[in-house]
Amino acid sequence: MIHSPESGESFTSTLVKASASHRAQNDDNRHRNAPSIEVADVTKVYNVGHAAYPALRNVSLKIERGEFVSIIGPSGSGKSTLLNIIGALDRPTSGRVKINGIDLKRLSDDQLARIRNRRIGFIYQSFNLISRLTVLQNVQMPLMPRKMSQREREDRSKQMLETVGLGRKLRKHPTELSGGEQQRVAIARALVTKPEIVIGDEPTGNLDTKTTHQVMDYMAKVNRSGITVVIVTHNPEVAQYTPRIISVRDGAIEKDQVVPKLDSF
Amino acid sequence: MLARKTRSALTIVGIIIGASIILAVESSSAGMSSGISAEVSKIGANVLTIRAGGAMFSSGSTSTYKLSSQDVPTLEAMSHVERVVPYYSDPVTVTVGGESISGTLIGIDPSALSYIYNGLSLAEGSFPTASDYTSAVVGDSIAHPTSSTVDLGLNQAVQMKISGVTSTNLAFLVKGILSPYGQALFNNIDQDVFISLQAAELYFKTPDYSGIYVIVDSANNIGTVQTAIKAAYGSDVSVMSSGSIASSISSITGSLSIYEEGIAAVSLFVAAIMTANTMFVTVMERTKEIGVLKAIGFRSREVLTMFLAECVLTGLVGGAGGTMLGYILAFVIGGGNSFGPPGGGSSGGSTPVFTTGWILFTLFFPVVISIGAGLYPAWRASRMNPISALKYE
Predict the structure, then answer these.
(1) How many CB pairs under 8 A join A and B?
(2) Cα→Cα distances A10→A165, A214, B203, Å
(3) B 1-20 residues with CB below 8 A of A?
(4) B199: pLDDT strictly greater than 60
(5) Is B294 part of the contact surface with chain A (CB cutoff 8 Å)?
(6) Which of B291, B300, B387 sits opposite A110 (nearest CB)?
(7) Given CB atoms, is B342 within the 8 Å cutoff of chain A?
(8) Burial, B242: exposed, middle or buried (Cβ in 10 Å; 0-12, 13-18, 19+)?
(9) 3-state class of B358 per DSSP?
(10) Side-chain half-sphere of B10: how many Cα atoms within 13 Å?
């Protein structure tokens, strides 16, 4: 079940093998052909005092399994709101959201938590690591609610950290790492549960240009292993990494286009 | 980060102090109660002590009545009275090998001693006869004083001085030495010198007895005899049985211990408040962390469990520390809690008694308090909306 990288094996093939075995054991076979993410006519309204503020207005989109998508837009456009709803962190005021064919509307908060834990990995602009824990402990956190032995958790986490090149920094605390390293820890944490979807909310927002490219290269690799990757960004350079760019403005989708992929940047 | 560690440490210290005070107070008062029972049981349950004047523990008695030989037949005539034993008693300073020891000179019919003090026995020698004016029986600490290298043996002279209006120097021949005995309520037998009643009458130069022991035929009849004496003498004398002495002392030490228990309860309460405060602040500080945990799929219940587990740990550490500190503290308090009558008589210290019950309480009650204090903040944490939690700075 746990696939340990053999020497010389690339990052990509590790993930391909790992996620393939995971999917083989996935008892949701009936949803195998369903789109990764399906948003149908979703509206999100925030009530601020007496006023109602519509963050999203009748948004619909479909993201197939294995796609690499960025959502761009100015601040206040609703892109983060959309991401939170896609990520099962928030519920729409109206409309339907399906993850791998599973309708989120019928699920309780606890069940949504389960979906997040098993199928979705999150990466944030400010990394959101727990500073009082070590790097290894941070990566283990998503595995804590599971019935796994401590040994298994540690092994999986170590393997993940090695994959992102931080195998030597297991016992360090996040504050001892650079921004790029911290984001890589966050990526390892997001991947440790072998999710089908990885969602990034401005993942390179706090990083310099060089590190931004590093992290986006990782995201591309993650996507190549078969994981659906959705990134929210305001940086057009970052959006260049993804073949599909969805533009959001004022709570609605303005443009949704697939750009032919270039082989190198 | 450092601030948080300091805050956790202080909370635990608060719990340790509260818990330790409880254990210390309970154990030292338990020690005192058993100490009292031990000393009380040394005086026979069927012995009444009569002293002239009002109540034993009041500073001044209103009556000027004095006990003397004419009271003996009065008392002997009462039903259920088996024997009447008058005595003289005065503090003295005994000199042994150049060292001074404070003790008490008691003049009493030597043959009655074993009826009054359970288990009293001679290590060496014999009691003086009733008409012997020159011999004495000394207690173990007089014969073998810890402060002096010289011991007293049989047929040696024991010298002492009665301090008072005029000092009187006395010397007696040691005829007997008592085995170690200890305290028997206000009277440390080991520091006593016993002479015959007639000898005391002579040397104390007064016909007034210091007190009279009345030996009753059975402990069941103590009440009856006590009532009869009260009826005959009114407030001219005070009558005590070992039971009533014990209950007087118990009520004094009881109120002392209620006071101490009050302090313990308050300090534990304060510790609980501190824990609640720490938990609230901790939850606030970890708002973002809670958001992250929920985002990665922790359910509300799991967040709650996590925080409660930390409470349990805090409580256990506090309880363990409190038990250890309380153990030490009990001895300190025990030393301070000695009891004795005002105006003379020796006092007894006590060793604390640790019951399994109180040890377990001290160990685990802080856990209960921690959970109680942390329950609401932990519940608040579990109910946080992850999105707003993540935005929290």
Answers:
(1) 54
(2) 12, 16, 111
(3) 1, 4
(4) yes
(5) yes
(6) B300
(7) no
(8) buried
(9) helix
(10) 13
Residues 6+ apart with CB under 8 A from A222: A15, A187, A191, A198, A229
Question: Cβ contacts (< 8 Å) between A118 and chain B: which residues?
Answer: 297
Give the pair of three-digit tokens for residue B255: 């109120």
Amino acid at A228: T
Q: Alpha carbon of B309 to those of A32, A241, B281, B305, B368: distances in Å?
A: 40, 44, 17, 6, 12
Q: What is the pLDDT of residues B222-246, one digit of tens each?
A: 888 888 888 888 878 888 887 777 6
**Phi, then psi, of A191 in degrees rounded to 5:** -90, -15
Helix segments in A104-178, DSSP class H:
109-119, 135-140, 150-163
**Neighboring chain A residues of B298 at a CB cutoff of 8 Å:** 113, 117, 144-145
Rg of chain B taking only CA atoms, in angstroms: 31
Q: Check A124 against B301: CB less than 8 A apart.
A: no
Q: What is the ipTM of this complex?
A: 0.81
> Could you tell me the two tokens for B213?
């022991």
Q: How many CA atoms lie within 13 A of B184 on its CB side?
A: 22
Beta-carbon-side half-sphere exposure of residue B206 (alpha carbons within 13 Å)? 13
For A12-27+65-77+116-258, which CATH class? alpha beta
Per-residue pLDDT tens digits for B248-283: 777 777 777 778 778 878 877 887 887 788 878 888
Domain coordinates in residue numbering, chain A = 12-27+65-77+116-258
Per the CB < 8 A criterion, the answer to whether B85 and B112 are in contact is yes
Separation between Cα atoms, residue B140 and residue B308, nearest integer Å: 60
CA B219 from chain centre, in angstroms, equals 25
Residue of B nearest to A128 (CA): B292
**CB-CB contact of B65 with B52 (8 Å):** yes
